């Protein structure tokens, strides 16, 4: 590894120098256009201009075939070029920043000269909100005499005729005509035109295409929608805004991991994450969670390294049909992130975005408030060596909490009463501040943008902090008419300290299981002479003091990241372009965790026998390094073949090399817990070094053929050669085809337009196939070693590799219908899809000496629909109401597994009361219990002779019975979001309601709290009485006896709840704690005010917006005792469980956006 670091350093240094050099042209003058061409079409002329300049053109595609004048200019401005090019063509242009808008005007006969005096006319153009419109074109009708409004909407034009008619035109607004006569002042207000230009989206390989010409589903999210509430996490900001995209976010503290799936799970290996592409660079989103049911920490996903304020837009390519060009890594879809670039701006080009938010626990699992510490309806006492009696025990099945004094483990009597909601009282109010400052601008020759972002967080837990720093530089320059260069480098550093421990070892579990009478205030000072240390209830050391866990188990993690690219673009002809790009993505993470003991001297002899004696400190450290290189070459062409046909194509290749390394070590018996100094007795108790390399060589191509702008055919092909497959199977090919038919345009072309209330109508159809290679090192068994207790030992291998593995194949068909009505006031986008994933690399049981082996097997079929609805129900000059709705339904079924295999279970904790798996003929993600209650034909509980529920025996074949009776499924029936937004005279209000209907979740938290008597469902305990010589609370379990008669056998409440509860790993009945995972929550709320530009005219500001923002305000509907949408990690297994999750948290604050 060491010999590679200088090479890496040279790469980064070269990248940084190159990027800085590319920005140098900004210190020169504005460059001009030099171009020579004969008479041609407007589309061809635009491509030649774009080959020299960083201008983006927006225009009606019908204009692309318009004949234009010859050009022969040198060092001319873009305005001069456009004026000569469009002279006499009745096409108006507007230039805003680096965007040129073209619009066809009605041909007019030139007016005869009136020989009247010239008239100088001035005025101002405003929009419907009385905001100035910048870049409106004012044309004297029938002439080429024109003017453009300035920053304040002002203009001046000189006419040579008092009868002149002025045309006001602006992209997206209705053209307006006014006759000033002899007036020297004409002010006007322009209204929005529903027939705006067609939407342009980013597609595979970063190619921008008109959305109406695409034959597959792509959903585009702009930055203003993404950053409505200033969420510092890009995944959090994206949640609920894309149909068919599902987020599963771990409830594990600051920046918990998030699993993203598009159109459901389809992999038996739980590898269902989409590919991230940031500005054309493959961006690794590894989940770095170490969380488990018994401890560990969730360190978040690496997508957190992206600053959302740097994002211009996100395009989600939802299936293989859209993502086939990205190859095997894109089988689960692609999230395409396009970051902001410099553009021509008024003022200094400086933008500041900041937010300040506070977080609070809003909803917790309900706890019972009636009974306290004890057992069998009575307090439990212990006596220490000084014969002082103390209340003890970890159970909450004691007597009623009536306020009488009881001798406590503190040595003094305290009131025996409910102490409040510990799950709320324990946590503090979190605080976060998020700032981004960006400096950017552009000339005709170059562009640049530099941003610096900082995010500081104090979490809900004491001493829980997270800080993140982002630096992003994006530059580009045109060297000459043949060559342009552009590049990007993004640097980030994230550091977190004292993340909460998950599972039974963490504070949430301790707080959930502490009896209601135990006071939190008595637990805080656990190191003094009279207080316990690790425990609080007696000699049974099942639980820990939550404050002990918080302060004695410390952890930290720090990640540095650098990613970016450098690209050269060569214009071979006005219709042909060649590009070469080198891209890299590197991150390094350092981890540390420790258990700091109290030492013998801190343990009071009076309570020593109650406390676990941990007298040595131990520490674990780890480091993870990830480096990916991509080198790509691409040839792109675009030609008008005839008046009605257009051909676009590209050919390319890519070389990918990835290296990943993990090192970790553990040491015990340290001398200093503050400086990590080891004494002579320190011992290295573990050491590991793991890693992998993989390579992929690829060739790809695509073809786009369109006819009359209403019929488009796209064909793609790609071949990958993977290093993780055997040589005889390492090459795999996959194609795709898509067809788009805009039948509203077709009907207009044949002079039979659709009814006027139908604005747009399009049908699309696509089919695709992609491959996926297996994990590295799945082919051959090799010897592995580990360092344990100072000795290097071989690792016993239990998995048999397979040298005949083949690539996984995913085939997909998709059909869709897009409609717009009433001048775009109402529309929808509907998609039906079907996909089949086969040849999955999966582990199955094997014969001795192996426990499992890799095989190609299994077939998962996904079917579903997606619907996006958008509407503007109300639109006046002062008030606009917009509504967007996303809906998605997916069903994943298991059609086959390996030969002789009926079921597999996904990786998860074997001590949990449930399993999540796949059974042939069932739905992917079915939940199976370890035990079930026996029921009669009517579903009633059958009790035993003691009055307790009987366990089901399955007629001697319990495993088969459990497989035939899943207790739930993790898949929702419907995902939905509703986003209303209102704009009233610059006051903006938007909200997003996130909804999930269907699916199941097992509340293990509730089950464990039930077994010890702290959950709210244990408040019913029947009647306190003596029975068979024992006094206790007795109840009758609803159900029947073996003979079918109604149950009347009393049983102690403690016996019943401890029997059905889930405290004993494999015991208990999970079916009692299965809940409908449906919910409706208010995910986002923002209320803002955009200051009018008229108020900013005499200030340095070019824009100013102030907003109140809030996230995760509340659940409007849910059926679970805890958070129905948060597990302790991102696996499919964890999705089935609510297990000691951090309580649901609401966030609120304010944000500010300033431009200079």
Automatic annotation (TrEMBL):
Q: Does the keyword Transport apply?
A: yes
Gene3D superfamilies according to UniProt: 3.55.50.30, Carboxypeptidase-like, regulatory domain (2.60.40.1120), TonB-dependent receptor, beta-barrel domain (2.40.170.20), TonB-dependent receptor, plug domain (2.170.130.10)
Report what the protein is called: SusC/RagA family TonB-linked outer membrane protein
Q: One Pfam annotation, family name?
A: CarbopepD_reg_2
SMART domains for this protein: STN
Species for this entry = Hoylesella timonensis
This protein's major location comes to: membrane
Tell me where on the tree of life, at the top rank, the source sits. Bacteria
List keywords of the entry alphabetically.
Cell outer membrane, Membrane, Transmembrane, Transmembrane beta strand, Transport
Lipid bilayer topology: Multi-pass membrane protein
| GO CC annotation, single | cell outer membrane
| NCBIfam families linked | OMP_RagA_SusC, SusC_RagA_signa
Compartment(s) of residence:
Cell outer membrane
Family per record: Belongs to the TonB-dependent receptor family.
Outline the extent of the Secretin/TonB short N-terminal domain.
55-105
User: Is Transport found in the keyword set?
Assistant: yes
């Amino acid at each position: 590894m060491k010999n590679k670091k200088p090479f890496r350093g040279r790469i980064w240094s070269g990248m940084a120098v190159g990027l800085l050099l590319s920005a140098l042209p900004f210190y020169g003058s504005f460059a001009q256009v030099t171009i020579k061409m004969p008479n041609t079409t407007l589309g061809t002329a635009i491509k030649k201009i774009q080959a020299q300049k960083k201008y983006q053109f927006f225009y009606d595609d019908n204009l692309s075939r318009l004949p234009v004048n010859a050009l022969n200019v040198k060092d001319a401005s873009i305005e001069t070029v456009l004026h000569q090019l469009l002279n006499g063509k009745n096409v108006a242009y507007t230039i805003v920043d680096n965007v040129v808008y073209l619009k066809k005007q009605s041909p007019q006969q030139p007016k005869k000269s009136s020989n009247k005096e010239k008239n100088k006319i001035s005025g101002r153009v405003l929009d419907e909100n009385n905001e100035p419109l910048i870049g409106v074109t004012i044309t004297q009708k029938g002439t080429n005499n024109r003017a453009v409004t300035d920053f304040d909407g002002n203009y001046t034009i000189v006419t040579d005729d008092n009868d002149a008619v002025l045309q006001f035109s602006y992209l997206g607004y209705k053209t307006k005509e006014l006759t000033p006569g002899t007036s020297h002042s004409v002010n006007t207000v322009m209204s929005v035109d529903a027939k705006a230009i067609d939407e342009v989206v980013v597609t595979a390989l970063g190619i921008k295409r008109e959305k109406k010409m695409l034959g597959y589903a792509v959903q585009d999210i702009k930055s203003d929608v993404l950053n409505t509430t200033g969420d510092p996490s890009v995944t959090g900001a994206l949640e609920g805004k894309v149909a068919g995209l599902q987020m599963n976010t771990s409830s594990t503290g600051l920046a918990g991991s998030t699993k993203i799936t598009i159109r459901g799970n389809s992999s038996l290996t739980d590898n269902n994450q989409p590919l991230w592409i940031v500005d054309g660079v493959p961006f690794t989103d590894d989940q770095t969670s170490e969380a488990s049911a018994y401890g560990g920490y969730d360190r978040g996903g690496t997508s957190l390294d992206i600053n959302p304020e740097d994002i211009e837009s996100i395009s989600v390519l939802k299936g293989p049909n859209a993502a086939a060009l990205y190859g095997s890594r894109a089988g689960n879809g692609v999230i395409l992130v396009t970051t902001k670039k410099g553009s021509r701006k008024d003022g200094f080009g400086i933008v500041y975005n900041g937010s300040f938010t506070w977080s609070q626990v809003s909803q917790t699992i309900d706890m019972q408030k009636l009974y306290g510490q004890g057992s069998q309806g009575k307090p439990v006492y212990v006596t220490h060596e000084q014969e002082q009696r103390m209340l003890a025990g970890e159970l909450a099945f004691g007597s009623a909490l009536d306020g009488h004094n009881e001798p406590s483990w503190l040595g003094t009597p305290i009131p025996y009463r409910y102490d409040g909601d510990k799950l709320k009282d324990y946590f503090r109010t979190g605080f976060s501040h998020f700032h981004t400052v960006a400096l950017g601008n552009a000339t005709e020759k170059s562009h640049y943008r530099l941003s610096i972002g900082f995010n500081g967080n104090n979490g809900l837990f004491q001493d829980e902090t997270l800080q993140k720093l982002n630096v992003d530089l994006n530059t580009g320059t045109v060297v000459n008419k043949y060559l342009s260069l552009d590049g990007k480098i993004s640097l980030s550093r994230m550091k977190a300290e004292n993340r909460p421990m998950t599972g039974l070892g963490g504070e949430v579990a301790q707080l959930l299981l502490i009896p209601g009478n135990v006071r939190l205030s008595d637990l805080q000072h656990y190191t003094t002479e009279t207080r316990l240390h690790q425990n609080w209830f007696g000699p049974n050391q099942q639980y820990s003091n939550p404050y002990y866990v918080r302060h004695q188990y410390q952890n930290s993690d720090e990640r540095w990241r650098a990613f970016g690219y450098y690209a050269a673009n060569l214009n071979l002809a006005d219709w042909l372009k060649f590009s070469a790009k080198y891209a890299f993505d590197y991150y390094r993470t350092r981890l540390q965790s420790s258990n700091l003991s109290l030492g013998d001297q801190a343990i009071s002899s009076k309570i020593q026998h109650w406390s676990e004696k941990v007298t040595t400190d131990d520490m674990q450290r780890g480091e993870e390094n990830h480096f990916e290189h991509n080198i790509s070459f691409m040839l792109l062409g675009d030609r008008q073949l005839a008046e009605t046909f257009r051909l676009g194509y590209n050919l390319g290749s890519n070389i990918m090399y990835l290296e990943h390394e993990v090192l970790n070590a553990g040491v015990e018996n340290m001398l200093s817990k503050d400086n990590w100094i080891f004494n002579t007795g320190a011992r290295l108790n573990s050491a590991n070094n793991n890693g992998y390399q993989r390579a992929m060589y690829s060739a790809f191509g695509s073809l786009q053929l369109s006819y009359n702008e209403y019929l488009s055919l796209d064909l793609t092909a790609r071949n990958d050669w993977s290093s993780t497959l055997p040589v005889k199977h390492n090459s795999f090919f996959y194609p795709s085809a898509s067809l788009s038919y805009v039948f509203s345009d077709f009907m207009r072309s044949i002079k039979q337009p659709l009814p006027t209330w139908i604005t747009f109508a399009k049908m699309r159809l696509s089919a695709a196939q992609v491959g996926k290679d297996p994990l590295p090192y799945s082919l051959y068994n090799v010897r592995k070693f580990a360092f344990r207790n100072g000795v290097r030992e071989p690792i016993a291998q239990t998995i048999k590799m397979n040298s005949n593995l083949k690539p996984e194949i995913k085939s997909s068909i998709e059909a869709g219908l897009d409609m717009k009505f009433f001048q775009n006031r109402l529309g929808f986008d509907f998609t039906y899809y079907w996909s089949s994933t086969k040849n999955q690399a999966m582990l199955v049981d094997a014969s001795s000496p192996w426990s499992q082996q890799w095989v190609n097997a299994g077939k998962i079929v996904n079917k579903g629909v997606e619907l996006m609805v958008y509407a503007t129900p109300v639109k006046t000059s002062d008030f606009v109401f917009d509504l967007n709705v996303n809906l998605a339904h997916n069903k994943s079924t298991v059609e086959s597994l390996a030969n002789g295999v009926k079921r597999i279970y996904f990786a998860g904790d074997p001590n949990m009361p449930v399993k999540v798996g796949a059974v042939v003929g069932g739905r992917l993600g079915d939940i199976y219990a370890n035990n079930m209650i026996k029921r009669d034909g009517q579903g009633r509980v059958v009790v035993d002779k003691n009055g307790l529920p009987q366990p089901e025996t399955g007629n001697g074949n319990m495993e088969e019975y459990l497989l035939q009776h899943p207790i739930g499924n993790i898949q929702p029936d419907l995902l939905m979001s509703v986003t209303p937004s209102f704009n009233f005279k610059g006051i903006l209000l938007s909200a997003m309601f996130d909804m999930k209907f269907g699916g199941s979740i097992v509340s293990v938290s509730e089950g464990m709290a039930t077994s010890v008597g702290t959950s709210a469902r244990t408040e019913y305990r029947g009647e306190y009485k003596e029975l068979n010589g024992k006094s206790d609370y007795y109840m009758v379990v609803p159900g029947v006896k073996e003979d079918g008669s109604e149950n009347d056998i009393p049983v102690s409440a403690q016996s019943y709840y401890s029997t059905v509860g889930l405290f004993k790993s494999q015991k208990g009945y999970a079916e009692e704690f299965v809940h409908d995972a449906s919910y409706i929550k208010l995910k986002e709320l923002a209320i803002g005010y955009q200051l009018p530009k008229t108020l900013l005219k005499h200030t340095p500001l070019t824009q100013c917006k102030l907003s109140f923002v809030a996230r995760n305000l509340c659940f409007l509907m849910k059926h679970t005792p805890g958070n129905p949408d948060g597990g302790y990690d991102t696996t499919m297994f964890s999705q089935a469980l609510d297990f000691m999750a951090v309580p649901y948290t609401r966030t609120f604050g304010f944000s500010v956006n300033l431009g200079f």
